[in-house]
Amino acid sequence: AWRKFSAKEFTTKDQFESEVVKHIETTLARSLFNCDEAAAYAGTALAFRDRLVIEWNRTQQRQTFADQKRVYYLSLEFLMGRALDNAMLNVQQKDVATAGLEDLGFRMEDIISQERDAALGNGGLGRLAACFLDSLATLNYPAWGYALRYRYGIFRQEIVDGYQVEVPDYWLDFNPWEFPRHDVTVDIQFYGEVRKYMDDAGKQISVWENGEVVTAVAYDAPIPGYGTKTTNNLRLWSSKASHGEFDFTKFNSGEYEASVADQQRAETISAVLYPNDSLDRGKELRLKQQYFWCAASLYDIVRRFKKSGKAWKDFSNQVAIQLNDTHPTLAIPELMRILIDQEGLEWDEAWSITQATFGYTNHTVLPEALEKWSVPLVQQLLPRHLQIIYDINLQFLQYVQRNFPKEREMLGRVSIIEESEPKRVRMAYLAVIGSHKVNGVAELHSDLIKTTIFRDFVKIYGPDKFTNVTNGITPRRWLHQANPRLSELIAAKLGGYDFLKDLNLLSKLEAFVDDKEFRKEFQEIKYANKVRLAKYTKDVHGISVNPNSLFDIQVKRMHEYKRQQLNIFGVIHRYLELKSMTPDQRKKVQPRVFFFGGKAAPGYWMAKMVIHLINQVGKVVNNDKEIGDVLKVVFLEDYNVSKAEMIVPASDISEHISTAGTEASGTSNMKFVLNGGLLIGTCDGANIEITREVGEDNIFLFGNLSEDVDDLRHQHFYGDYVLDPMLAAVFASIRSGTFGDAGQFSALVDSIVDHGDYYLVSDDFKSYVDTQKLIDETYKDQEVWLTKTITAVSRMGFFSSDRCIDEYAEMIWNVEPLPPQQNG
Ligand code: 26Q
């Protein structure tokens, strides 16, 4: 009976089948005679979509009538992955559908894999937003996500001759999960000028006029919670030419081409996701995207608020807006503009409403990733916003001056405007000043932002404005969906699937750590997951790997700070050692497969060079007869969310080896441990909290600490260090051409030998190699290893994104859940 929560649901597989058939024959107008997997996918998706839509409408109605605060999560990225499997599991109808599809002659797995990933994000930040949506719905919070409906998501990665090649990701030709709302549009202005005048009461009024207008059209996607009727909304804005009089004049006067060009220019705004995840390039189109999305979303939020008939002083009791990094910071001056220019509020009232409404999440301390927009660019594109930003800055600096009269140098340091040539707007400072709370995403990171980039602001506002919310992951996708057998085993032991909603229940697994039967099944599941990855590796990459090897995985965006180069240098070191051994010695070595995966930003040539090196090393090592199965290197092409669901459950060890203090949190580390893998990692980001939870014995930490990084960098700068001798041998081998023409990798080697080794690869190399040795030794005793993995899994409850969302709700948003009626 607990299944029967939906008004229209498939109670039998026959009912499901007839729904699928109906959709194939009518919605798709296809004959069943040539129903292929694509059509079966479409029919299944549409059948489930019907189920979601009913509860989606009800949820929205319930949220409208409830006099309650809502959360708006503004993120330029939502890395959703596939929706069908998630929908089937969240509404708990996958079994019925699996049986139905089997009747129709299809295997569920094949049907699920027909779907393309919704890849509207770069990496961790975008996937975090997607996990948050799942938790918000599951916990019944009234919440919306707002983003852009990119026509092209993150590029598809192909590896050609060992090099990354980017292929456009046109993903929208069939997307059953989105609903165009052609009646929900907002006209967004760019450029133009500001005219000031006095009204009758002698008050100064600003009017932004004569700009160019682009229309935002809403597209909605349902977000079903797990085991609840709550179905929230993700609203994506698409840009199109506005059809004002201006257009028609052009069209009629024969300027047909010009009119079409206008149209294309408008559509360009939401055309493509920027593929940089760590470098701000200051492109005008990116700024346009940001404003277009912020303005459309705020208009929508304000319109919804005004319908409630409440007074403005109630705005922040009804609305919480979370800024996912600085990308939506323009929402701050935009809300000020709406309140002052359009609604006629006084500055002070508008400002206190604005501050009370926004919260800002920081995801990086790397200076090159902090957004700064050129003042002339903002002046041209958003003249009124620049005035408001200057006014915010003036008020803020006056406040600082009053409170810290003796610290005059502080004013320049904290000014929103950087006095460079050209001047630039520091978006992170604007976000801090315009929000009531600022949070980092793991404890170390939240401490670091208080002592580095936001140090002065802690002094100005006091420490309470800054807080930590350690990231989390949804156990629905990252355990139940990605690893159904493990989920089932856990449910069998814990007496049901309650742990999927309350992940702390995993702690009860620890009682089974010595249970023979349980251990055997746990190990069999890991093995089966490794077999699946091995098969994929053979089928797709033509590389045979033995699933009895230790599977070592590093999958994440390619970046120097994440140090894939440290990993591949370690592999080369291992290869050189193996080559120096006798065959008998080699036989005693623990066989290992190193899997890599990840995209490099298209302009990031150093990251691309590391991809190339990995592939070159793979080519040499994998074909070395002497080495055989003892060492293999695989670069998994086009790492994305759906591939992660297969890769993550297959690890014995995964690598999270960033230079200490650089990785804000990391979230795949959590996914790997939850799926019964151990970590090798630095004392960085969430690795530290994972260690605290699972215990030092159940993780492999190495390397220098973040507090030592500055000193070490200084030593490199003054030449006061010795290159690690094992690393020197690795470089000698690269330079001798072992992995192809050495010239191709000289910039990489030089960055460490001659240019300061900014990411401290040399300093951590020995510690890394030693720890890898320890892993080999530990793995040889499979019973010891198994105990560690089971113990670690049972202690991962803290890292559910449900815990994380509850913390945001309480500490930052002050919102309550709105559960559906029991029998409604
Ligand atoms: C900025 C300016 C211009 C164009 C693009 C960008 C841009 C886009 C994406 C900058 C950064 C990103 C993404 C950053 C990101 O994914 N950060 C990761 O966030 C995770 C969730 O908090 C953390 O776990 C990771 O540690 C952090 O690297």
Q: What do you see in this structure?
A:
The chain is an alpha/beta fold. The protein folds into two domains: 66-82 and 117-470 and 808-813, 3-Layer(aba) Sandwich (Rossmann fold); 475-798, Rossmann fold, CATH 3.40.50. 48% of the residues lie in helices and 16% in strands. It has 33 helices and 24 strands. The strands form six sheets. It has a nine-stranded mixed beta sheet with strand order 7-10-11-4-1-12-13-17-18, with helices on both faces. Strands 21-20-19-22-23-24 form a six-stranded parallel beta sheet, with helices on both faces. The protein is globular and about 95 Å long. Allosteric enzyme that catalyzes the rate-limiting step in glycogen catabolism, the phosphorolytic cleavage of glycogen to produce glucose-1-phosphate, and plays a central role in maintaining cellular and organismal glucose homeostasis. This is Alpha-1,4 glucan phosphorylase. It catalyses: [(1->4)-alpha-D-glucosyl](n) + phosphate = [(1->4)-alpha-D-glucosyl](n-1) + alpha-D-glucose 1-phosphate. Keywords: Allosteric enzyme, Carbohydrate metabolism, Glycosyltransferase, Pyridoxal phosphate, Transferase. Belongs to the glycogen phosphorylase family.
